[in-house]
Amino acid sequence: MTDDKKSLNIGPDPSLLLVDDDEMFVTRLARAMEKRGFAPQTALSVRDAKSMIQKFAPAYAVIDLRLEDGNGLDVVEMLRDTRGDARIIVLTGYGAIATAVAAVKMGATDYLAKPADANDVTSALLATGEILPSPPENPMSADRVRWEHIQRVYEQCDRNVSETARRLHMHRRTLQRILAKRGPK
Predict the structure, then answer these.
(1) pLDDT tens, residue order, the chain (185 aa)
(2) Does 155 lie in the same domain as 116?
(3) Which residues contact 130 (CB under 8 A, 6 or more apart)?
(4) Quick one: which of 82, 93, 121, 182 has the fewest CB in 10 Å?
(5) How many Cβ atoms from other residues are within 10 Å of residue 24's Cβ?
(6) Positions of E strands within 65-128
(7) How far is CA 95 from CA 56, 89, 105, 150, in A?
(8) Does residue 131 lie within any of the structural domains?
(9) Does the pTM exceed 0.90?
(10) Do 139 and 145 touch, CB atoms closer than 8 A?
(11) Which residues contact 36 (CB under 8 A, 6 or more apart)?
């Protein structure tokens, strides 16, 4: 494992906190990250994550944005206050890219859209920022980019449908139908 840590440039503190309410996903990710040289601990809720951070502040964290008992941004904020040098990755789904950008502004190092695999997570955690990441294998479709843009404006308008429709120059009912559907692939 020490050779893996050196080759991955994890550093002297391999502690990693994984926070996600999908128990199967977080368990699988923990095993994969352990094989890469990290020392993962998992939490399934905001409450559990905050409790763990009070006991130990990890050098790395991967935090789901939406958890059953609250918002992952609360965990990001607490970890950033507790350990300023922690590398924090926010996982997001449901078209919440705008909120993920807000997480980066709050102190997260980066964000990844779900589903993300262990290679994506490792790359994001260890990225130095000096080089551009390689282009994605499966970039978002034009429909997905449009949907993400609508979601971003919707979040910026504090989820006010009428205001979002006005700013996007579209009919309010059309926007409501778009918001009611799942995002395209």
Answers:
(1) 444 444 567 888 999 999 998 899 899 999 999 999 999 999 999 999 999 999 999 999 999 888 888 888 889 999 999 998 999 998 877 655 667 677 778 888 888 877 788 888 898 888 876 555 566 666 777 887 788 889 888 888 988 999 999 999 999 999 999 988 877 76
(2) no
(3) none
(4) 182
(5) 8
(6) 66-67, 70-71, 87-92, 110-113
(7) 32, 17, 18, 9
(8) no
(9) no
(10) no
(11) 4, 8, 10, 118, 122
C-alpha to C-alpha distance for 182 and 185, rounded to whole angstroms: 9
Does 162 lie in the same domain as 73?
A: no
Same domain, 120 and 82: yes
What is d(CA 142, CA 52) in angstroms, rounded to the nearest whole number?
Answer: 40
Within 10 A of 127 (CB to CB), how many other CB atoms are there? 15
Question: Would you give the DSSP letter of residue 135?
Answer: P
Domain contains 135: no
Identify whether 185 is part of a domain: no
Which pLDDT does position 102 carry in this prediction? 75
